[in-house]
What we know:
heterodimer; A: alpha+beta; Rhopdopsin 7-helix transmembrane proteins; 5-stranded mixed beta sheet; 21 helices; B: alpha/beta; Rossmann fold; Arc Repressor Mutant, subunit A; 6-stranded parallel beta sheet; 10 helices; 6 strands; elongated
Amino acid sequence: xxxxxxxxxxxxxxxxxxxxxxxxxxxxxxxxxxxxxxxxxxxxxxxxxxxxxxxxxxxxxxxxxxxxxxxxxxxxxxxxxxxxxxxxxxxxxxxxxxxxxxxxxxxxxxxxxxxxxxxxxxxxxxxxxxxxxxxxxxxxxxxxxxxxxxxxxxxxxxxxxxxxxxxxxxxxxxxxxxxxxxxxxxxxxxxxxxxxxxxxxxxxxxxxxxxxxxxxxxxxxxxxxxxxxxxxxxxxxxxxxxxxxxxxxxxxxxxxxxxxxxxxxxxxxxxxxxxxxxxxxxxxxxxxxxxxxxxxxxxxxxxxxxxxxxxxxxxxxxxxxxxxxxxxxxxxxxxxxxxxxxxxxxxxxxxxxxxxxxxxxxxxxxxxxxxxxxxxxxxxxxxxxxxxxxxxxxxxxxxxxxxxxxxxxxxxxxxxxxxxxxxxxxxxxxxxxxxxxxxxxxxxxxxxxxxxxxxxxxxxxxxxxxxxxxxxxxxxxxxxxxxxxxxxxxxxxxxxxxxxxxxxxxxxxxxxxxxxxxxxxxxxxxxxxxxxxxxxxxxxxxxxxxxxxxxxxxxxxxxxxxxxxxxxxxxxxxxxxxxxxxxxxxxxxx
Amino acid sequence: xxxxxxxxxxxxxxxxxxxxxxxxxxxxxxxxxxxxxxxxxxxxxxxxxxxxxxxxxxxxxxxxxxxxxxxxxxxxxxxxxxxxxxxxxxxxxxxxxxxxxxxxxxxxxxxxxxxxxxxxxxxxxxxxxxxxxxxxxxxxxxxxxxxxxxxxxxxxxxxxxxxxxxxxxxxxxxxxxxxxxxxxxxxxxxxxxxxxxxxxxxxxxxxxxxxxxxxxxxx
Lengths: 590, 219
């Protein structure tokens, strides 16, 4: 044993080989005399012992499981020692009679305890009582019997106090019956553990509990047979069956270790699952399912202050989200630079799976960091789009103003000149045919001029450029068939903001007339704090909505929203059916 | 009638001059900007100056600032603004800048020599003229029930003429009714609209316009 422990553990295969050799040799040596009589049983015992010890060594690396590891190692070694009575020598038969069942105490200890860090009180009481019963009971059997009654040679050391066969038989029944009862209690305890454990623990302990149940039932059966066959000696087949079933215990621990490996792979697979556009919710969901902890929480630390209290390191640790115990397991998700992105709060039971937990947090951290980088890129892209949209708006506006100006200064003046010339010609000609033709030309020119004036105004109202929003809206209001109450400050803002506010007001006023059947409208503009606010209220039928399918003002409203959004503004529409429409527009104009 | 023209479009300026001269007026100055006009008429002011509203150097409302300056330097000169903008706000701006003897006419109306010459004459007489197109659009609005609706058809016709700056005599001639009847209608209109009867001719127009506009924005 000492030798195997001294081997550096950084080469697990070497360690395992040394352990197999040393433990195997020990087991073989202890059982040497029995080897020729019952090779099956001795080989099985050798296997059981070696597997227990190996499993124990494996378990020693798990945090908080050192005691369990030792219990398994001791149980394994004791298993072979049980058969030491094959040796002819004074003490061996006595040892086997007294301590032949002690390995079960250590086995039960390991199974009950794993994977917790300590035994529960009722488990400890159970194990102490079991130890007292087994050792005490066998002591009573020994002192009331002769060695021959127990299949030992008369030469064996045997502390007989009162060799009384009927008494010894009674005690034998009682001790074995009691052991059977303890086994039943152990079955109940194991079943209770299985039902009360959740999450990762459940996945890991299920095979161990099942193995414990199997081993316990095997021990019960073996005890019953031993009890019934005390006088004739127990057939070796019983021991063989029990031993082979006991193999389930170390195998189960190995399965648990494998299980953890699988879980680890699961968690590594997390990356693929959440890396594409992961947000906090996706990471939370993935961590919850990968770590089997539905109570797990991920708190975003990248949100601006105010949404999460104390977004700094200390704050998050000191103040876990409300409704969570302060003893939660806490782990930060950090960027490569080390700044915290989020904090993970999990079931403290996960501390046993620290490695799993760390890998999971690290993996999700990668995903989150990626998501943040993507979000940053998206933000930058959005900023570019905004800037280019603003440039397009400005360019479009400038173009419209230019067209209006060109129409006014060029075509309009030219046509007016022609119209004046034709008019002069009308007065000078005496020829009736020419007179009529000139008149017709003049009237035609007049119509063209009126149309051109409307066209130019529609392209861009000059008054908006010259006078600003107030005069422009006054002119709009004057054309409307309903009273409009205007409150517009004389302050000028940028042409784009003025133009947007103007078109929005036109659209809203047209809606008030066409759809809302309003009898009055109020337009109130305020310019303060680098923001233009325009409120348009009518007393019409209401029920306007930007969504399609509403009444036909919907298109107009969505135009409004588009125009305002283009300048990073906001539109609010309140339009309850039958209670008028209130449209509020906010446009930044810094 | 002695007139001066400030208009930056050469073709329209020349045509306007031709039209005015063929209608018997004398054009003493024909220039392309407000500053040139002020310089040209300094020694010999005309009876009426016809101004384009949009001229160099600002190409915005140069005409209105020129009008204000002109009134300051030569209070006796009537001002007739010619514009392609049919918006009331420009007319309001002009009326705010210059009190009486002022008119705002759409350039289209040069095709109606009578209206043009009539407007020139009334501005020369110290009257106020607003383009019939603008007045019509103010009157024709399908407004909600208001005091305007209490006027009968004849009274509405008289109101329109009043808003265009015509005197009672002019209205009588226009509508083929006697001046006495016009007076009766005017009294009726003022009563129905609740306007002050004692107003002078100019203020009559402005009062009516103010009323037309106020029923809109303050309704």
